[in-house]
Automatic annotation (TrEMBL):
It is found in: Membrane. This is Putative Glucose facilitated diffusion protein. It holds the Pfam family Sugar_tr. It comes from the Eukaryota. The chain crosses the membrane at residues 54-71, 76-94, 114-135, 147-169, 175-193. GO terms for cellular component: membrane. The lineage of its organism: Eukaryota, Fungi, Dikarya, Ascomycota, Pezizomycotina. The keyword Transmembrane helix applies.
């Protein structure tokens, strides 16, 4: 495959992920108080809840680096899109109930807040860091700087556009804007499932096989390239003993086991030595 075609394919992958990274959830994080107000909260409570949402955002995003090498990048993003789409559909429902007279505020505030907090956690785990990791695993050194620069520019422009248009959407569409967010996340999930290969657990050379095979077969659909080989992370132990391919969570458990075993040995040695010292 030519270098130009390889760059185009990889830039397209990164651009769509960078675009989604700043798409609907960039607006949710910026305009959190307005969203909570749509769920019938007063302004001060909406601001406090937004602060709490940011704190939970920080906590849950730490799970990404534990799961990303165990579950895989592709699966995290696809299921993340599904979770976000469902969350925004439910927020549309509860936003509509807020317009219906006779519905208690708590019946909207409590489930609506839980859904919004859950959506924040889903985005932090599934999309926040994942889209920035994939390019480092598929870009060749010659194109990494240029491709990353283009991706960041596209992400920045998309983020600017969405952040600018969101208040206009809230003023005109109100809670129906959540339905738009559900649609964009559904599209992002479909695009990821269709065209984004799983790059985790593979070396750079192994990831290049996807693009070479895709060029030969004339299709970028993951299911059609190498009989769906890149739909998930490779199975089996690392025969070469390359620690970088081992899941991070697995390495942590292994390290904890080794440390615990050493502590037990040292404790036994201390128990044996101390009586002798007493004599």
């Amino acid at each position: 495959m030519s270098m130009e075609r390889e760059k185009d394919a990889k830039s397209a992958l990164k651009d769509i992920h960078g675009d989604e990274d700043g798409k609907s959830y960039g607006a949710v994080s910026v305009y959190g108080p307005q969203i909570f107000e749509l769920l019938s909260f007063e302004t001060r409570k909406a601001e406090y809840l937004t602060l709490g949402n940011y704190i939970s955002y920080f906590c849950f995003m730490t799970f990404a680096w534990l799961l990303i090498d165990v579950v895989g990048r592709r699966k995290l993003m696809v299921w993340g899109s599904i979770g976000l789409s469902v969350s925004f559909l439910l927020l549309t429902l509860f936003g509509g109930l807020n317009e219906v007279s006779g519905v208690p505020d708590l019946a909207i505030e409590i489930p609506g807040s839980i859904i919004l907090f859950a959506a924040t956690a889903i985005f932090g785990i599934g999309w926040l860091a994942t889209v920035w990791l994939i390019p480092t695993e598929i870009y060749p050194s010659a194109a990494r700087a240029q491709g990353s620069a283009i991706s960041v520019i596209v992400w920045g422009l998309a983020n600017f556009a969405v952040t600018l248009l969101t208040p206009i959407g809230f003023n005109n569409l109100k809670y129906w804007l959540f339905l738009v967010f559900a649609a964009t996340n559904t599209f992002a999930g479909w695009w990821t499932w269709k065209y984004c290969p799983e790059s985790g657990g593979r070396s750079f050379e192994e990831n290049q096989e996807f693009f070479e095979s895709a060029a030969k077969e004339g299709s970028w659909a993951v299911q059609k390239v190498d009989d769906g080989k890149f739909k998930s992370m490779p199975k089996g132990d690392d025969e070469e003993g390359n620690g970088e391919r081992a899941p991070l969570l697995g390495r942590m458990f292994e390290l904890a086991y080794i440390l615990g075993y050493e502590i037990q040995i040292r404790n036994r040695q201390v128990q044996v030595v101390l009586p002798r010292c007493g004599k």
